[in-house]
């Protein structure tokens, strides 16, 4: 509500309050507008959103459990979140996140935050009278921080691939003079970049979420003060009361405070939407680019493994018969042993090739699913922020 609208409203209420009680009409207009703000499909939308994130939570939990349980006892040391890569000429190790293991725990955290947001929305819309103010205010906080774990997972997973493909000391120095070193390749710089981005994202949205929590709590308190003041004025109304002008001025001062707090809340919602738009686009681009680079590297390994397997194929039957006719009993024995060893090598190579193929397709599928999930969260975040702005503006412009 603008200052001109408040001034016009004050003049109108001053003229009306001298002859009849206008305060029940104002109070009823507020209640009617509040009912219009609750869209009938909002609980259904909250349920659908909750089911989607429950499915994502279950998938992430099952994937994490399978990764842990399918490891052999000797391979459990491969389950790690970080590892230190020591280089001979650097006293500080490189910190490399495990992109194959870090996604699931963070995705579980993100789904839990989003489910808390959905639960708060459903409770607020379905039972507005019995919902505590903390739950009302907590909705915006959980929405602000719900995407932080997912974006952190995208960054750490992408950084792990980015390091292996481009920034590892062997890759970074290839084709370059050993005396020329880029400052970005220093472990301290790379470790700072790796850790600082998730910290900045988490810090920014925690700050926005806490600020919105406090602001919307103050908006709710001011709104309750408005309704309380209107009830008091309605009970104590008298025709031609000289105190009506002063009472109306105090009432519209409260309206002005409510309008200012609401405008600040709208600005915070816009800052949240802009921040998530920037983070989501950046994370999607970074994750997909590093995943493509990793897939290319894996594809080259796959081709090399395929060529290696084709070299150790069975010999031609005619050559085999000639060799068997010209060989002695001892040579036959050695030949059988060599064939046995060769068969074992081919079998191991086949298993390696199968694992590479499985990883190759898994990375493609994982990249697609994660991009869709982050895109869905990004779209939901922007739509929610835009809708919340519209709802708040309608709420104060009654």
TrEMBL record:
Membrane-crossing ranges are 45-69, 106-125, 140-167, 188-214, 273-298, 361-386
Q: Which domain of life is it from?
A: Eukaryota
Source species:
Puccinia graminis f. sp. tritici
Q: Which UniProt keywords apply?
A: Membrane, Transmembrane, Transmembrane helix
Q: Could you tell me what this protein is called? A: Uncharacterized protein
Show the segment(s) annotated as Disordered.
313-336
């Amino acid at each position: 509500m603008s200052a001109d609208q408040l001034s016009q409203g004050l003049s109108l209420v001053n003229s009306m309050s001298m002859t009849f009680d206008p305060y029940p009409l104002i109070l009823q207009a507020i209640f009617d507008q509040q009912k219009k703000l609750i869209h009938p499909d909002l609980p259904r939308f909250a349920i659908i959103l909750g089911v989607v994130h429950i499915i994502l939570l279950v998938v992430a939990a099952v994937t994490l459990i399978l990764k842990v349980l399918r490891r052999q006892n000797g391979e459990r040391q491969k389950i790690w979140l970080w590892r230190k890569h020591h280089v001979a000429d650097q006293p500080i190790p490189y910190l490399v996140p495990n992109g194959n293991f870090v996604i699931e725990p963070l995705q579980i955290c993100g789904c839990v935050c989003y489910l808390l947001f959905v639960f708060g929305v459903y409770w607020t819309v379905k039972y507005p009278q019995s919902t505590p103010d903390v739950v009302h205010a907590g909705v915006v906080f959980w929405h602000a921080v719900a995407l932080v774990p997912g974006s952190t997972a995208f960054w750490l997973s992408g950084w792990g691939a980015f390091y292996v493909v481009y920034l590892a000391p062997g890759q970074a120095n290839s084709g370059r003079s050993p005396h020329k070193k880029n400052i970005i390749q220093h472990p301290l710089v790379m470790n700072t970049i790796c850790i600082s981005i998730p910290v900045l994202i988490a810090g920014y949205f925690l700050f926005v979420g806490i600020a919105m929590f406090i602001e919307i709590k103050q908006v709710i308190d001011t709104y309750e003060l408005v309704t309380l003041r209107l009830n008091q004025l309605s009970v104590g109304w008298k025709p031609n009361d000289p105190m009506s002008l002063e009472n109306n001025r105090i009432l519209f001062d409260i309206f002005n405070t409510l309008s200012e707090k609401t405008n600040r809340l709208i600005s915070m919602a816009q800052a949240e939407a802009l921040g998530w738009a920037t983070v989501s686009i950046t994370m999607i681009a970074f994750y997909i680019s590093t995943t493509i680079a990793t897939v290319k590297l894996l594809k080259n390994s796959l081709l090399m493994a395929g060529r290696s397997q084709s070299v150790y194929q069975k010999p031609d039957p005619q050559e085999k018969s000639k060799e068997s006719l010209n060989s002695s009993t001892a040579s036959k024995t050695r030949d059988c042993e060599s064939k046995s060893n060769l068969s074992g090598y081919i079998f191991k190579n086949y298993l390696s090739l199968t694992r590479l193929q499985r990883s190759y397709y898994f990375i493609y599928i994982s990249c697609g699913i994660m991009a869709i999930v982050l895109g869905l969260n990004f779209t939901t975040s922007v739509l929610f922020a835009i809708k919340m702005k519209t709802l708040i503006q309608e709420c104060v412009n009654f």
